Amino acid sequence: MALAASSVATSPFEGQKPGTSGLRKKVKVFTEKNYTENFVQCILDANGSAIEGSTLVVGGDGRYYCRTACEIIVRICAANGVSRLLVGQNGILSTPAVSCIIRANKALGGIVLTASHNPGGPENDFGIKFNCENGGPAPDGVTNKIYQLSTTISSYKIVQDLKIDLTKIGTNTYDISGKPFVVEVVDSVVAYVNLMKEIFDFDKLRSLVTGASSGKPLKMRIDSMNGVTGAYVREIFLNSLGASAENVVHTTPLEDFGGLHPDPNLTYAKDLVDTVRNGDYDIGAAFDGDGDRNMIIGRKAFFVTPSDSLAVIAHFVEAIPYFRKNGVTGFARSMPTASAVDLVAKKVGKEIFEVPTGWKYFGNLMDANRLCLCGEESFGTGSNHIREKDGIWALLAWLSIMEHTGKGVEDILKAHWATYGRNYFTRYDYEECDATKCNAMMEQMEKLITDPGFLGKQFESCGKKYVVKVADNFSYSDPIDKSLATKQGLRVVFDDGSRIVMRLSGTGSSGATVRLYIDSYEKENVLGQASDMLKPLIEIALQISQLAQFTGRNAPTVIT
After folding, report:
1. I need a labelling partner for 409 at 20 to 30 A (CA). Which of 4, 124, 518, 551 fits?
2. CB–CB of 409/284 below 8 Å?
3. Contact assessment for residue 265 and residue 259, using Cβ atoms and an 8 Å cutoff
4. How far apart are CA 422 and CA 338, in angstroms?
5. What's the mean pLDDT in 23-44?
6. Do the Cβ atoms of 81 and 48 come closer than 8 Å?
């Protein structure tokens, strides 16, 4: 029986502007009549005529409303001339897996249903983002077009009578007004796991994990935080690498993440931190809701900053077969990320790039073969195997380094600091602040630091003096397509290399999240406490920004 598409009249919603990684709002916003339908139609329209006969990938992190949104997307894609959809079973695919499947199938792109590290459930957050044909988040040109279309949309197309069972793996073919439309419900895990087996030496990793080579099994605590990575963790670490069941926890994806805030940091992954600190574990790791972020800790909860994690992996790329086979090009980091990886790049003679926050800025460099390893301080690390950050990949990279060196996490990092020095780093997050007041704060701070008289200004705190060398609102000119990204974060760089960076996050669903980043380089004093080493700069940053006065906050929501 042929099914027919229909056109539904609608009107624009305010604020359907994709942020750093798509559109994120409360579930109650996405469930308003026509809200999800409008945004999906604008994604398809932004691709123009290329959408006709195309292949798209669809999946998400399993949070509340994910499966319903998947079904809506299937019906809208059917009406808009999409030829083939690859949809994760039960609507579930990790963000790295979406990128993997897009690339493997040469798809036009993918629609990812996630609010990443934001909490889930009926009262919390949902999100939709579009990944383009290279598997990475859509660039600014595409997201700006989606937003422009959302301001004028008057109708969307949908096949109302199309029914799809997302629980069953298999191929479903429909006749849409005489044209075939294929929906393949695919195993959520297999393509990604096979890719990991191509990148890493699973035989060596299995020997490390089971203790076959040392006589002592590796004691791990891997926490999926009830997010999407649970099935991937079970297949890789239990089935493929031989870990025992007690090494993995919270591996059942839940619509509300079991009440957990699925953000792998020292605050929200407290259960992991406390368990590793009080137990006999060699390594601990946590992943966020959609599987692209990671946190690594060593024995007794020895914390590895994302900046240091990136630098260590860069130093030990030869421990990973993928890099030995494909070679090593450049490295990159987001601007707020401490410059630890820059020191590695300089030593090994590789290009280093500093880009705005947002994984999409790494994609062009990867596609041009000028970048193979990159990271963001927001617990994101990855390589050019896909075009997304990849939490499980990062843990497998660390296990490969442990197997290669025969050392534990803390010893690996201390040896790294002895070679390169240490970039002390912290980030203060002030979540759900008044957006109007935050914008006023940023405007005042920018006016202050860009005044010519600010350069050379001296600040003193806790007996230390700092002289301003550079102060600006960071902008980035893409060396590949020459596009320009402006107003990417206020930064004050002092003559000793220490930095203060402040920006408003683009990943929240309500209000404004202020992020304050502080880093300072030490060549000799590498074993101090970060909180002590960075205290003078933190006080100067609060003084310059007047953050407490504008936000009314005397302490951050999260410190990492």
Report:
1. 518
2. no
3. no
4. 10
5. 97
6. no
Of 345, 333, 351, whose CA–CA distance to 476 is shortest?
Answer: 333
- pLDDT at position 489 over 80: yes
How sure is the predictor about 213, in pLDDT bands with cuts at 50, 70 and 90? confident
Q: Record the tokens describing residue 451, joined without a space.
A: 């005044």
Catalytic positions are 116
The dihedrals phi and psi of 328, each to the nearest 5 degrees, come to -120, 125
**Any alpha helices (H) in 279-390, and if so which ranges?**
306-315, 321-326, 340-348, 360-367
Q: What is the DSSP string of 307-318?
A: HHHHHHHHHTGG
Torsion of CA 200, 57, 286, 209, to 10 degrees: -30
Strand spans (E) along 270-391: 283-287, 294-298, 303-304, 331-334, 352-355, 373-376, 380-383
DSSP count for the chain of H helices, then E strands: 18, 28
* Residue written as token pair 């699973």: 202
Provide CB contacts within 8 A for 508, sequence distance 6+. 19, 24, 118, 431, 432
45 three-class SS: helix
pTM given for the model: 0.93
Region of residue 539 (phi > 0: left; psi between -120 and 50: alpha; otherwise: beta) = alpha
**CA distance to 70, 158, 159, per residue, from 164 (Å):** 10, 14, 12
